[in-house]
């Protein structure tokens, strides 16, 4: 019997926003950094970690590329979701003053989010592959007059000094993460549950319309529906869906039965509680 590692794997360096998500959602677990999303999934499959923390969408930039392709093939199941507000901190070497800072590095997606702050202070920016990695590089290289935009956690880990907090232009930027494990948890462990699945429709006229009709007639709220090609073939389209409810709810049970009638394949990816921050994010949108 395999014993628990009490580790949760994430993509990126220590101090990444995914690491922050691990700290918030599973504070009692050791965070295991991985180079790629594939490495995160493999860490759980090979029992190097018990759980995976995977970002799936961001309120500013939409879905995370390739994640939806990986989930059905991963062999893992969703057991939780976590919403994390992206708070950008400006950091540098201890003793550096904000007025002495001339240049910063950050992940490509962070730079436009703090454009107003950078412009006001006359600071130029260069894209880096990883914000937390840029923080580690600065701590190692100790380049004078250089800063990094990353999470405050990155500053704590790498011994940098935070010069400014919450420098993003818009304070609603949030990333949604899925927490995945090797085994599904189908228990009803919260009042508000979500169900995620992928499906392909049969090759008949109006198949998608007919497949989704059961959710409307049974009063099921579909919070997400996305399509993407499979294996680069235009005619092979797979749909990813999140709906409110538990599969044992009579209304959702009827909707799923109708969906199966019009699909060539359907796979359940997880049943899990809605994060309490979900409603706050919807109100801010």
From TrEMBL:
Keywords: Amino-acid biosynthesis, Aromatic amino acid biosynthesis, Lyase, Phenylalanine biosynthesis. Residues 196-273 form the ACT domain. Pfam families: PDT. It catalyses: prephenate + H(+) = 3-phenylpyruvate + CO2 + H2O. Its EC number is 4.2.1.51. It is an enzyme of class 4 (lyase). It comes from the Bacteria. InterPro entries: ACT-like_dom_sf, ACT_dom, Chor_mutase/pphenate_deHydtase, Preph_deHydtase. Residues 7-182 form the Prephenate dehydratase domain. GO terms for molecular function: prephenate dehydratase activity. Pathway: Amino-acid biosynthesis; L-phenylalanine biosynthesis; phenylpyruvate from prephenate: step 1/1. This is prephenate dehydratase. It comes from Paracoccus benzoatiresistens. The lineage of its organism: Bacteria, Pseudomonadati, Pseudomonadota, Alphaproteobacteria, Rhodobacterales.
């Amino acid at each position: 019997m395999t014993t628990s590692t009490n580790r949760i794997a994430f993509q990126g360096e220590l101090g990444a926003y995914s690491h922050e998500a691990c700290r918030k959602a599973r504070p009692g677990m050791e965070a295991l950094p991985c180079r790629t999303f594939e490495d995160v999934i493999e860490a759980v499959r090979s029992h190097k970690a018990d759980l995976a923390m995977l970002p799936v969408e961001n309120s500013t930039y939409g879905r995370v590329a390739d994640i939806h392709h990986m989930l059905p093939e991963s062999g893992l199941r969703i057991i939780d979701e976590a919403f994390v507000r992206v708070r950008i901190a400006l950091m540098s070497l201890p003793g550096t003053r904000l007025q002495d800072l001339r240049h910063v590095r950050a992940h490509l997606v962070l730079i436009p989010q703090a454009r107003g702050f950078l412009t006001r202070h006359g600071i130029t920016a260069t894209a880096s592959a990883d914000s937390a990695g840029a923080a580690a590089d600065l701590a190692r290289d100790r380049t004078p007059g250089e800063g990094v935009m990353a999470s405050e956690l990155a500053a704590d880990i790498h011994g940098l000094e935070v010069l400014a907090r919450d420098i993003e232009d818009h304070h609603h930027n949030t990333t949604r993460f899925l927490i995945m494990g090797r085994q599904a948890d189908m228990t009803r462990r919260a009042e508000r549950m979500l169900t995620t699945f992928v499906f392909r429709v049969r090759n008949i006229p109006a198949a998608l319309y007919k497949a989704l009709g059961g959710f409307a007639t049974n009063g099921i709220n579909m919070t997400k529906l996305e399509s993407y090609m499979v294996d680069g073939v235009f005619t092979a389209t797979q749909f990813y869906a999140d709906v409110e409810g538990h599969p044992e709810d009579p209304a959702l049970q009827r909707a799923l039965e109708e969906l199966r009638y019009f699909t060539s394949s359907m796979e359940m990816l997880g049943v899990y509680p809605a994060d309490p921050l979900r409603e706050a994010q919807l109100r801010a949108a």
